[in-house]
Amino acid sequence: MEGKTASWDPIYTEVKASGFHYDGVYHKVPEMIPDIILKPYVSYKTADIYQTEFTPENLFESVYKNKIVRDFKNNKLDDQGNPLEPNEMEKLTPEEAWIIARKSGSDIFSERTPKFWNAWTKV
């Protein structure tokens, strides 16, 4: 259809009005405002889940404990307890770890962090 245009634009979608115009004044009608009805994504038949608080000890055990115990059993620790074969995270300098901790996705930017706390100031 060279030289002709379509009578409708397939990308454009009409937004439904939430009111009407009368005598040059727009009247909003609450009943015309669409409601977003959210349905539960988990069935109410699901059993309740009870979980204890996730403590710093739990964090240590889930992240660090296995490697430390494995290195200890295999005699891969030096006299000061440092690993003889450190992984990539253990090779980081304090400055590099500080930078990684402030990257996007870090929990220091969550709502739990006090608003007056400056993420870019070293302690």
- Which range does the strand content fall in? 5-15%
Unreliable runs:
none
The helix fraction, in percent, is 10-25%
What are the secondary-structure elements, in order, as H or E?
EEHH
**Count of DSSP-assigned helices:** 2
Distance between the termini: 68 Å
Structural class category? alpha+beta
Question: Radius of gyration in whole Å, from Cα?
Answer: 29 Å
> Order of strands across the widest beta sheet?
1-2
Q: What is the mean predicted local confidence, pLDDT?
A: 78
Largest sheet: 2 strands, antiparallel
GO cellular component, one term: ribosome
Organism: Orchesella cincta (Springtail)
Keywords: Ribonucleoprotein, Ribosomal protein
Protein name: 39S ribosomal protein L41, mitochondrial
